[in-house]
Design brief:
Layout: H1 3-24, H2 31-34, E1 37-43, E2 59-68, E3 71-88, E4 98-120, E5 124-153, E6 159-190, E7 193-200, E8 203-218, E9 227-240, E10 243-253
Amino acid sequence: MRSFPCRCAALLGLALPFASLAQTAPAPADTARYYRHHLGLTASPVLDGFFRNNRSLPLGLLYKRQVKPAQALRARAEFIYDFFEQVNPLAVKGQGSGDAYRQTIYRIEAAFGKEYAVVSNKRFAGYVGLEAGGFYGTNKRDFEQYTQGYQAIDRNGQPYFTIAVNRGNSSFNDIGLFVQPLAGVRYQFLRRLYAEAEATLPIRWTRTQFQLQSRVSDFDTGTLPFGSDMGEDTYYRFTATFRPISTVHLVLLF
């Protein structure tokens, strides 16, 4: 009978350390309250001709600061670089037409805003918000266009059509401001990692400066039978375009 109290004391001695750990171990974190910081990568897919002529995938950074369980402040920066080149040469000299051009686009955009969760569970969440910001971009294009020119006489006295070539360049420099309502859906596939997609309705005010220089000459001699052209202009515009998949995000919680 004396061995029973001894066994109970031994079991109690083994259980005390585990009971102490259970009291000091933190409870499972409420991600909406505990993870105050959200840092992610953003991408803006171009859906028009995605597999055929989409040569760029804009990338950016997104930061969110959780201020309440269903509210977060957000800041976003995005950079775009796009390069495209195309050549359609003449098949036979003096017949038909052809062209070649090279286009380079740079663009940077920054925005600040706030978002509100409207529905959520352990995996999915839906949210709405509003952003405001500004952007700057430049679009430069060098081009050559070949067409049949005027009729001339070669060294043997035979008539032929020369090739007129129009060489030049153009540029568009944009600067502007925007405000955009947004709505998104989020899927949390790991405790500290989630992905989301957003739809936006950007309302933009843009100032564009346009410049053009071109020179039409004879392909064979380089002379100027037609002349040259140059000009510049500045214009302003408001636009509003609904984007059903504006950006996708991959976000880390910490």
